[in-house]
Amino acid sequence: MPERTLRRLGLIVNPVAGIGGRVGLKGSDGVRIQEQALKLGAVPQAETRTVCALEAIKALGAELEIITYPGEMGEDAARQSGFQPTVIGSIQLGSTTASDTRKAAQELEQLNVELLLFAGGDGTARDIYDAVGDGIPVLGIPAGVKIHSGAYATSPKAAGALAALFLSGDITSLREAEVMDIDEDAIRAGIVSARLYGFLRIPFQRRLVQGAKAASGPTEAGTMRAIACHIVENMRRECLYIIGPGTTTRAIASELGVPKTLIGVDVVLDGRVVASDANESRLLDLLDGRPATIIVTPIGGQGYIFGRGNQQLSHEVITRVGESNITIVGTKEKIHSLRGQPFLVDTGDPSLDQMLTGYVKVVTGYNEMIVYRVNS
Fold it and tell me: Staple partner for 154: which of 40, 104, 158, 311, CB 3.0–4.6 Å?
């Protein structure tokens, strides 16, 4: 009987990826922001999301060797998933930096791993690109706050499934995926500034890979106002309206005559703002015993309604509000940009994600609605 070939998977986890999301910091780049997030009670999510991805790879069993960096940069997640990884390199536990990510990627490339699986956000994708360029196949486990880059799977589970298909030889095709450079300081000031940074080569299966984020076009302004008029006319008194990020939702605030943080979550009650740029903790406090509705719009080109750029709307917040009290708004142009791909949810709670799947109504104009599919 021929000897089976051992597949080599490189693994890198950015342990602070996404740490600023639920506390409303719109990113995790930089030591100052990471320290601020921890002071606000942020709980790191990257390891948990990596474990979810690795669960889908376990079927490869003894045919797979995972090579990774120590502790929170991959070893812990691999061992938690039942693997006995090969550990290389060294880090200062609790104080890893972008240079650790770049160094790990370079060392894994030199060890000829067949796929480099990494957990993070746009900043991590840039670090991976700086280290290996398009030299080896890579794939991102989404763990960041905002992920404009196209090098990521649609969810941690999808990342694991796609990695398993590639390593087993069931998928062999690779494609170039955009790595976007996002100015987090500009985002915190309400300005979305993105530029193309480079390309990474990733395994590709359309339903498992997210697209790069697409901006709304200038011709959509009239449609956004029509959507806003419909929403405002149907608002109920004594009901909290939790309005998510985006230009479409900003039009609703404009129709009400109140300010809106473009990339934050704001809360309106009876026509006035009661919380601006609210984090998860503030939202949970406001929801204590009050009826509420969440208003969200899908991310253009990607289709996410929860789990990208609005982690303040955590699974606890969504559960408290109730799935029947979610309103989705979006222009037809934005929906057409998805090219038939469903809306996506990635809240970090698989049971809630499953509950949110199915067909939903989407407000696309004044007294205009369509029905659209949601997948997890």
Answer: 158
